[in-house]
From TrEMBL:
One of its GO terms (biological process) is carboxylic acid biosynthetic process. This is CASTOR ACT domain-containing protein. Pfam families: ACT_7. Residues 110-171 form the CASTOR ACT domain. It comes from Neohortaea acidophila. SUPFAM superfamilies: ACT-like (SSF55021).
Length: 390
């Protein structure tokens, strides 16, 4: 019998940071995405963050972004924008207000604010950490979005559930310390000691629901795939879309900094990708004030960057990846446990396949869940996800 939760080794090395930002999620169907290219470009290219004296807040390094977190993803059915609430109000709301009622009804901007949690740490196995870091939150009934970048993973959680998130992680041995006076920013490190409340927090924090509350990852996996089956959600793959995950080069030479060569060429490449017709089949952009730009993109988009991204994009020649997509259009935005349930199913299946480490990343959008795997692991991963329905 599986114990309710055991502290995984990956959690001991994980470092969690609550970023100093409050985010909203914007959903744009691909049919009207071209109408919103301009505010998306403004969000990426124009620094609107100001210091107390009204001057632009310039990043410490030219490759850093001026907001703590911004994410744009384009997949085969929609575009998702994650940005600070005030940027949504300034850049997107005026355009939305000018559309007719039919077009306005196709766009959604979350009324809920979200907090971004950065996950970092040495020696974290890519596939296992998705499971280990989402399971405590899933078992606490917290809805999350999971985004993997070149450098790190990010979990987006409802800001209203922030204290519940911290408590769930404290039950896993983490200790929270605030980094500012208002408490939005903070970090958590693992003390190595589990809370004695760990076996029952899922019951203590939430009222009893008609459906049994899962208390183990195995139960959560079963519940997740039962829900997917009820809604006839099956994994799909477009094998013609070959992906690569890479990052903008950090060029700190005096000449490069003075001329902004790398920064300008990266921004030009991004602008070409975002304005391409038809829109990109797959493009995920993550921008932070801690690292250079991270991209997961259809390899055909590399041609939009100077010299196909040579000397601009680190890792562009990395292993070929493929996205397995779950269309979650029919599920509420606040659905819980999907990332954890999918990750646990893959871990269980792939562990029996080989002794090699299974590598996966995950991209949540407002309407899809995307499991990104290496090409040579695609067949086994699809067997795992389809087999869960049999």
């Amino acid at each position: 019998m599986e114990s309710p939760l055991e502290q995984p080794a990956t959690l001991l090395n994980a470092q969690l940071s609550f970023l100093d930002t409050r985010l909203v999620l914007i959903h744009l169907p691909l049919d009207i995405y071209p109408l919103f290219v301009r505010p998306i470009l403004q969000l990426i290219l124009h620094n609107t963050r100001q210091n107390a004296d009204g001057t632009p807040h310039e990043p410490k390094r030219p490759w850093l972004f001026w907001h703590p977190f911004v994410h744009i993803s384009i997949t085969t059915n929609a575009c998702t924008v994650v940005c600070p609430e005030h940027e949504a109000e300034t850049l997107f709301m005026p355009l939305l207000a000018g559309l007719n009622s039919k077009l306005r009804s196709l766009v959604s901007i979350s009324s809920e604010q979200y907090a971004a949690v950065l996950i970092s740490g040495e020696g974290l196995d890519a596939g296992q950490r998705v499971l280990d870091l989402t399971s405590p939150l899933a078992l606490a009934g917290i809805s999350i979005f999971f985004i993997t970048s070149y450098y790190a993973d990010f979990i987006l959680v409802p800001f209203s559930a922030r204290r519940t998130v911290i408590r769930a992680l404290e039950d896993q041995g983490f200790v929270f310390e605030s980094d500012d006076s208002h408490g939005d920013a903070g970090h958590m490190t693992n003390s190595g000691h589990l809370s004695p409340q760990i076996t029952k927090f899922a019951f203590d924090l939430f009222p009893t629901s008609p459906a049994p509350t899962p208390t183990t990852v195995a139960e959560l996996q079963t519940q997740t795939f039962a829900m997917l089956q009820r809604h006839d959600i099956t994994p799909s793959v477009d094998e013609h879309i070959e992906l690569v995950t890479c990052a903008g080069v950090k060029d700190s030479t005096a000449i490069a900094v003075a001329n902004n060569n790398a920064k300008d060429n990266l921004q030009l490449g991004l602008a070409k990708c975002l304005t391409s017709h038809p829109p990109p089949a797959f493009l995920a952009i993550t921008l932070t004030n801690l690292e250079s730009m991270s991209l997961t993109l259809d390899t055909r988009l590399l041609t939009y960057f100077h010299n196909d991204g040579e000397d601009l994009l680190v890792g562009k020649d990395g292993p070929e990846q493929v996205a397995i997509t779950l269309d979650l259009e029919q599920l509420p935005l606040e659905s819980t446990g999907i990332v954890c349930g999918v990750a646990s199913r893959l871990r269980d299946h792939m562990a029996h396949r080989t002794s090699e480490v299974f590598t996966m990343s995950y991209l949540s959008t407002t309407r899809t869940g995307n499991v990104i795997v290496y090409r040579d692991e695609l067949s086994d991963a699809m067997d795992a996800l389809k087999g869960a329905r049999d």
